[in-house]
Amino acid sequence: MKKQSLIIDQLSSFKISNVQKVIPLYDKKAPNSKDINATDIFLNETEDFQFITTVHTPDLTVFLPEKSLSTGIAVVICPGGAYVGLSIDNEGYDIAKKLNEKGIAGFVLKYRLPKAEYVNNKQIVPLQDAQRAIQLIRENAKKWGINPNKIGIAGSSAGGHLASTAGTHFHKEYIDNPLKTSLRPDFMILNYPVISMADSLTHVVSRYSLIGEGLAPKELNLIVMDRKTSVQKLVNLPIDLEKIKEFSNELQVSPNTPPTFITHSVDDNSVKVENSILFIAALQKNKVPVESFFYVSGGHGYGTDNPTSDVDWIDSCVTWVLKMF
């Protein structure tokens, strides 16, 4: 794995052919960011796969469909990466391109990671960026040909946790909102999502990265880099029980939670399928519309294309979204 430091313009120039624009999330300094002069860092795993490990400048990459196809629907897309990085190609740009084919705008969110060396109040920083993305798109909807009442949020893996947090915590405003713009997404798309922070269900690295305290940042980074032992080293470290409850999103569902499409592989050994099952049960209990799509196999991290199946979840998902409106 070769480490490279790239700026977003370099990435855009050779990675994304049909992007209209990359826009900064904030006009000024992002809330809770520390005063550190640094650039975003990318790990280039293959020619077609970028993994962002540090985000200092959160932004949105805009994918607009052809005007003749436009439905007025938009989706904020949150890539996963265990809250230690962003798998921005297969869980970001690829999803946006698929949505564009059906007339749906995609806004790929490059959100800040909860790393204490770069941010204060780390557990709310990703949510701040997700709320700001919804706010920014809703307030500028006309410019992009979007219906402000048709803005959803999608996320894969830890990005699914962020998306479901945006969909269950929207009543708490973590950003300045002078126009009182609604921060509630109109629907959610959750792809093999981390949902729970409970010991028996959670993805341990995602949980400790988001709400864990005590380890020095460099110490945590060293543990996470060793994938074979990271779970064993992190699982028994103490976590504040109130934070576990607050960020276990199966416990935060209400009748006002947005309609949800959720997909998962039964054989996922990274994020247990029970995360999705519990969330579905909570949605049903609260009479929130939910559609599910389960694969028998496929594991974790496949993005839009599960190599074990001839059927793509995103096709069923798009059908569901279009029927809703």
From TrEMBL:
SUPFAM superfamilies (UniProt xref): alpha/beta-Hydrolases (SSF53474)
InterPro entries linked to this entry: AB_hydrolase_fold, BD-FAE-like_dom, GDXG_lipolytic_enzyme
Record key words, sorted: Hydrolase
The BD-FAE-like domain, residue ranges: 61-283
Pfam families: BD-FAE (PF20434)
Protein name: Beta-xylanase
